[in-house]
Structures are given as structure tokens and as C-alpha cells.
Amino acid sequence: MKFKRILLKLSGEALMGNRQYGIDPERLSEYAHDIKTITDQGVEVAIVIGGGNIFRGVAGASNGMDRVQGDHMGMLATVINGLALQGALEDAGIPTRLQTAIKINEVAEPFIRRKAMRHLEKGRVVIFGGGTGNPYFTTDSAAVLRAIEIEADVILKGTRVDGIYNVDPEKDSNAIKFDHITFEDVLQKGLKVMDTTAFTLSQENELPIIVFDMNKKGNLLKVVSGENIGTKVNL
Question: Is 50 annotated as a binding-site member?
């Protein structure tokens, strides 16, 4: 395996499958089995998941809701998704721990860095819920922050497209895909990989990002094995 410890970033929308909102159990099961293919190879896996399939703080704020209140609701949505993913992973036979940035002791451990790293060393998948625990920060920022804290080798951003393009490939059939691109080029070209805060944090800490299609069975194993899947962003 090319990577020993990874942080997998999944969007909340990824869990919807073909639904309009909520969680698709079939999609959860597919993800769990894909993740098992790499844990079986000894790869240490941490996961940060978004909450957009349930609630988005930014969307709430745009409709007149208090932004801080909305972001707290979004954090709770990520915990719901984390619980759902935890259930699917354990059904697949993978030991897991859910840690949250906001204290919900009855359903999850609080985030403690040393404890998280110990879980990973013992072969448990650690799911980080609750974002960073602060309003105004996205789950992209949470993913980069946690990846740096646990000393991950790479951030794998699982999406529904197979990499980074010069324009949106779902809107323009002539879109050109990048196999590899630098942090500087992403900023200069104005490409949307992560929000600026998250992206800058990743750049400053020299943490590579690989964007790939998580919905294609077997892609996760290929990425972790070092195959040229998706788009790699580094210095």
C-alpha cells in the first residue's frame, strides 16, 4: 500500500444515493465494503463526513436563520451521518469509534487526539463528527485539521466526479481533467477543490489531496495502492 494512514472526506450528499435527501442504506453499505478492502490491507482509516444531506448552516443563514445556530444544526447533522456510517461499517465487520468535536457523551467519544491515534493503531476506523466544533468552519476545514492532527499521509476526497477539471464536467462535455496539479495552480486557475480556509491549511502543512470518484466500486483501493486514479494536488 502506498499510504499507511489516510483521512477520507465524504460529503453528506454522497450518502443520499439517488434520493433527494437523507441517507441511502445501499450507498452506506457500498462505502463500508469499499473501506473494508483497505482496512483488510492494514491501512489506517479516519473519516470526516459532511451533513449537507440533512442540513446546511449556510443555507439556513440565507433563509434568515442565525448563522451560528444554523452551523450548530449542521454539526449535529454530521453526527447523525457519522452514526449511520458507523453502523454500516460495523455491519461489515470493521471496528469503529465515533469522536465528536461537540460533547455528546451518550452517543460518541469527545475528540481526543492521542485517543484517536491509538484507535487507528489498533486497526479501528475513526469517524470524526461535529466538524471543528466551531461555527463558520466547513467540514472541509475539519477534514484538513484532523488529518494534520493525526499525521495522515494524504486526504482522499471522495466525490461523484473522477477528479478535478478546468470547468464543471457535469455541465460541459469538453471539460479537461487534471491528473496532477499544484496548490498554486489550483489557486491561480480558481478551481474549486475545497473552501479556501481548508485548502490553504492543507497547502501550508504540505498535505496532499487526492480527489476521486468514490461511487465507482474498487476506486478507493486503487487510490490507496498508488494507482493513477483521480487528481492529485500537492506542492
Answer: no
**Residue 203 one-letter amino acid:** Q
**Helix or strand holding residue 216 (H, E):** none
9 is in an annotated binding site: yes
Q: How many domains does the chain have?
A: 1
Q: Say whether 52 counts as a known binding-site residue.
A: yes
Is 51 marked as binding a ligand? yes
Q: Could you report the per-residue pLDDT of 34-55, keeping only the tens digit for each?
A: 999 999 999 999 999 999 999 8
List, in order, residues 6 or more apart from 143 with CB less than 8 Å away: 7, 9, 48, 155, 157, 194, 198
Residue 60 has pLDDT above 80, yes or no: no
**Is 165 annotated as belonging to a binding site?**
yes
Query: Is 25 one of the annotated binding-site residues?
Result: no
Q: Closest by alpha carbon to 75, among 145, 155, 134, 10?
A: 134
Annotate 70-88 with b (16+ C-beta within 10 A) or e (fewer): bbbbbbbbbbbbbbbbbeb
**Residue 6 pairs with which residues in a beta bridge?**
45, 154
Is this model's pTM higher than 0.70 or not?
A: yes
Residue 177 confidence class, pLDDT cut points 50, 70, 90: very high
Annotated ligand binding at 70? The verdict is: no
CATH number at residue 110: 3.40.1160.10
Q: What residue type is assigned to position 53 of the chain? A: N
Distance (Å, whole) CA 180 – CA 122: 33
Q: For residue 120, what are the domain limits?
A: 5-234
Cα dist from 142 to 65, 106, 199, 226, whole Å: 23, 22, 11, 25
Flag whether 135 is marked binding: yes
pLDDT over 90 at 160, yes or no: no
